[in-house]
Amino acid sequence: MTNSPSTINEETAWNILQKYTKDCLEIDSFTLIVLYATGSLPGGYYRPDQSDIDAVLIIGNGSEHIWGNSEEPNKSLKELNRCYLERYKIPKDFGPFPLQERELFPPYNPKDDVLTLEIARLKLQGKPVYGEFDLDAVPMPTAKDFLIGAQHFEAWWRDEFSKTTPLEVMSPTACVNTNLMHLSRFLRIKKGIIEFNKRKVVSTYLDNEPPFVNNEAFCLVEASLESQNSKQGAKLLGSYVGELRQR
């Protein structure tokens, strides 16, 4: 089967990142150290017209005024990301974000609940599109580091997110991703297993002495990943999210 002209296959996705790198260098070529592709594209499980395109910019220390930070890229970078998302009609999202070089090393910012996960993603999946960096010198975050991030995320969920977005109104996609987040978290913290491929999370979880199992919810999660999920499953998935959060 040949791809349609609009299909973003792997070659097209890499070309998009090459073009994006050139535009980033136009923003500032002095503080951009390296741009890494992360996620499904370098991870070997990219799906044309289904996967998003992820990347991380490692930038020189003290250059937040140029790039922003991992939680809030600056206006120029956000606008560039938006333009690429719309121009190439990238599925789901196009959200490259900056990390200062010093953020790659402990002690980590305890308030940045995704930082350690992104560092692990960089070390295990990262493929440079531009520049060079010794990722071997960057330590892998520990189970304790992942736990601290999870605790801060749960505090945010309890104190902020849940007050405006109760489980009952979460979309099926949000419920699926939240279920997978909890299962992945268990694997990282309790088993030392880091799995980024969403389609492998459920099976890996079931293979590693899972503390809690809901086969009906798992079937809905896996069906959703194959674009077969419907709104009818949202209530069950939302309920399962609530059960997982209590554990």
Strand and helix map with partners:
Layout: H1 10-27, E1 32-38, H2 40-43, E2 54-59, H3 64-67, H4 75-87, E3 97-100, H5 115-125, E4 127-131, H6 143-164, H7 172-191, H8 198-206, H9 215-225, H10 234-245
Parallel strand pairs: 2-3
Antiparallel strand pairs: 1-2, 1-4
Helix pairs in contact: 1-4, 6-7, 7-8, 7-9, 7-10
At a glance:
The chain has 247 residues and is an alpha+beta fold. The protein has ten helices and four strands; from the N terminus they run αβαβααβαβααααα. Helix 7 (172-191) crosses helix 8 (198-206), helix 7 crosses helix 9 (215-225) and helix 7 (172-191) runs parallel beside helix 10 (234-245).
Plain-language structure description:
The structure is a single chain. By secondary structure, the protein is of the alpha+beta class. The protein has 2 domains: 10-137, Beta Polymerase, domain 2 (2-Layer Sandwich); 165-245, no CATH class. It is 50% helix and 9% strand. It is built from 10 helices and 4 strands; from the N terminus they run αβαβααβαβααααα. It has helices at 10-27, 40-43, 64-67, 75-87, 115-125, 143-164, 172-191, 198-206, 215-225, 234-245; strands at 32-38, 54-59, 97-100, 127-131. Helix 1 (10-27) packs antiparallel against helix 4 and helix 7 crosses helix 9 (215-225). The longest helix is centred in the middle third of the chain and has 22 residues, at 143-164. The radius of gyration is 19 Å and the shape is globular. The model is unreliable at 1-5 (pLDDT under 50).
